[in-house]
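re: ur question from yesterday

yeah so i grabbed the chain u mentioned. its 381 aa long if i counted rite. heres the sequnce exactly as i have it in my notes:
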Amino acid sequence: MGRERVLIVGISTRAFAEAAHAAGWECSSVDAFGDLDQKTRVNNVGVLRDLGRPYSAAAAVAAARRLPGSSVAYVGNLENHPDAVGRLGRGRELLGNSPQALLRCRDLREFQRVVRRAGGRLPRTHFPGDPRPRPGGRRFLRKPIRGGGGQGIRELTSDQHPSRHELAQEHIDGIPGSVSFLADGRRACLLGIARGLAGEPAFGGTGYRYCGSLFPLAVTDRLLERLDDVVQSATRVFGLLGLNGIDFVLRDDEAVVLELNPRYSASMELIQRAGTTGLFGLHAAACRGSLPASLPPPAPGVWGKAVLWARRNVVAPHTRRWLARDEIRDIPFPSERIANGSPICTVFGHGRDAGACLVALRGAAGAVERNLTPAPEPLRV
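ran it thru and got these structure tokens back, copy pasting raw so excuse formatting
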């Protein structure tokens, strides 16, 4: 019997495609980047690099329809485009949440009702059409309703009003985190909790932009039980399948729940690096109705990843030698020009604790930056 074949689609498919390849699946992918290391492992189409088109969910799915694969899976940002997911899965097995489930669980009002019924805490949120929030000593953020990765989040100033595509949400001081879980449509099992890194200057991050994760994030048993209550409730109500994640902010041993990511998300590859091998196989099995009886504990220490963002227009070095290094992924092509504010690559690190892991990540990021050269002419993002 031959290996199973899957086609993975989304903005950045490298990590999930790598997990599929490691689990023994034949894999093709369509994404925005088409980076060097992905093209050495799987059959990849980069929408801009190979097709000369700006990335969009519609363009990615159109390209995917021409590629083989009896099964399909998706990553961000397709959860915001249920119609595109429906076209992607036409005539193939969809390993992930259905378009109908996405319509419901990405409705933040509906998700907040589920969280509230499960006893979870929520930030104050004002939706389009609601009265403008009155701060009263609180800070509020303007957030895109269909956003991701911290892109487009800004402080709400006293003279502003969110647009019809934005909501106003209370800013919660604390530690950003995410809980990852597998779901079979009825039940779920927790995979672990990661700390999020956003706007870190060491990695060229600004504002609320996602720039990495640390795994695991230690929490109390009481908090773990409360998060599990939310996860189980969301799984039952929305019929969630496969890998999913819920973002929150940890404050005073309470998780203030922000949103549900109904697909593979950025911190999950750290769970695999920490010892939960075969993550893509677990995802496929959960989508087919089977959850694992048990999962191995993570290996000792803290595992980390950081997305390195360009601080100026730069040119990549001879990057083919990076292919042999396990601490670098999403590798640009040799002499590729990278515009200010664009991602350069992802680096990984490990340490006995969070502080040591961050030191390793900063060292790896610094080594990459020292190999870059300024671009000889202005670039457009």
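noticed a couple things. Residues 140 and 170 are 4 Å apart (CA to CA). also Residues 103-120+173-287 form a domain with the D-amino Acid Aminotransferase; Chain A, domain 1 fold (CATH 3.30.470.20).
anyway ttyl
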